[in-house]
């Protein structure tokens, strides 16, 4: 595992994903017109589909436009790594205006994990960019059925940091509540935002993440459970659970959430061995991992998070987000027995 580090001057990459027809392009079109995106570069699969001619300031080339607010929009043909490196190179040469953030829109049937993998694993990209929040749009009308029928839809929700329910004005409160509770089962630590196309959601994509100065608030959100307002007045399960607990399963999907807890401070080296072995054995079926650790000899909490085998560098929080000082690791995916996972962590934690 990487050494602990906090400061990161790389450009943040937000990923916008969601199933076909879930409103990604509509949400993105509305966001691109806001001033919050004035220092953004946006990579879009089909540039012509976004419909921004009225906002156009400059056509740089066939696949690149600059909007009046300064936002850069580029089409992606096939090579995501090449598109990101080209953005960086053309900005340095003055061909494109400066930007401090990139938003990537995936196709509706795409697995967003390879996008994340590209940014994290490519040495050239990793030098310039880091993954920020992953935002998933879910259709209020068809989202519940898609979660039960389409594995892509469940995976997109499971790896999200923010979920935006679109077209909420087209369904009644009971159907909306059922969808929100199903999404909470898939991803209990995710912020769920309801969109009725009547408010600015720029903060959804532009908000801070675990990699910057808001890391303490973000970590607190992971383990506090969703707010009542996000789940129609019903508090979602907190991730402050006793060890080895399954927090929920999405009907028909096989995806579960498991919370592992350790009361005593952990040895960093022993935990690293356990964690590496866990990912080697189960990384392909673990969709998301989030953890806050109390390490021996460290006065502040250490945060870990990742997607499948891809783990972000650990970071420190300035202080604990709650009075609870237990170490907690939350796994989302097609998981083995929760009690077995808890026992294995306890065995490794006894290393002195």
UniProtKB/TrEMBL annotation:
One Pfam family assigned to this protein is cobW
User: Which range is the signal sequence, renumbered to this chain?
Assistant: none
Every CobW C-terminal domain range: 255-349
> What is the recorded name of this protein?
Cobalamin biosynthesis protein CobW
What PANTHER family does the entry give?
Answer: COBW DOMAIN-CONTAINING PROTEIN, COBW-RELATED
Instruction: Report the family membership.
Output: Belongs to the SIMIBI class G3E GTPase family. ZNG1 subfamily.
Which Gene3D superfamilies does the annotation name?
CobW-like, C-terminal domain, P-loop containing nucleotide triphosphate hydrolases
Reaction equation(s) it catalyzes: GTP + H2O = GDP + phosphate + H(+)
Task: Name any one GO molecular function.
Answer: nucleotide binding
């Amino acid at each position: 595992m990487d050494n602990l580090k906090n400061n990161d001057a790389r450009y943040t990459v937000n990923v916008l994903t969601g199933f076909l027809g879930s409103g990604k392009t509509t949400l993105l079109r509305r966001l691109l017109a806001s001033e919050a995106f004035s220092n953004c570069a946006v990579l879009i699969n089909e540039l012509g589909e976004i419909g921004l001619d009225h906002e156009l300031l400059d056509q740089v080339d066939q696949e690149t436009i600059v909007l009046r607010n300064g936002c850069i929009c580029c089409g992606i043909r096939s090579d995501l790594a090449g598109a990101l490196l080209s953005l960086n190179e053309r900005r340095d040469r003055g061909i494109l205006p400066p930007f401090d953030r990139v938003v990537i829109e995936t196709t509706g049937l795409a697995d967003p994990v390879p996008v994340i993998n590209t940014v994290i694993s490519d040495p050239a990209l990793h030098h310039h960019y880091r993954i920020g929040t992953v935002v998933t749009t879910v259709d209020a009308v068809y989202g519940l059925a898609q979660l039960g029928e389409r594995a892509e839809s469940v995976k997109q929700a499971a790896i999200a940091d923010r979920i935006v329910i679109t077209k909420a004005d087209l369904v009644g409160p009971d159907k909306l509540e059922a969808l929100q509770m199903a999404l909470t089962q898939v991803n209990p630590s995710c912020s769920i935002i309801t969109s009725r196309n009547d408010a600015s959601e720029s903060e959804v994509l532009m908000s801070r993440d675990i990699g910057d100065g808001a890391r303490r608030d973000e970590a607190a959100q992971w383990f506090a459970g969703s707010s009542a307002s996000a789940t129609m007045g019903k508090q979602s399960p907190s991730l402050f659970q006793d060890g080895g607990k399954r927090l929920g399963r999405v009907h028909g999907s096989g995806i579960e959430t498991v919370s592992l807890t350790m009361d005593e401070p952990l040895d960093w080296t022993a935990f690293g061995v356990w964690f590496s072995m866990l990912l080697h054995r189960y990384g392909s079926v673990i969709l998301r991992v989030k953890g806050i650790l109390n390490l021996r000899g460290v006065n502040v909490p250490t945060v870990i998070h990742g997607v499948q085998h891809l783990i972000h560098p650990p970071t420190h929080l300035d202080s604990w987000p709650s009075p609870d000082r237990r170490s907690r690791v939350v796994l989302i995916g097609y998981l083995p027995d929760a009690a077995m996972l808890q026992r294995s962590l306890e065995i490794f934690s006894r290393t002195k």
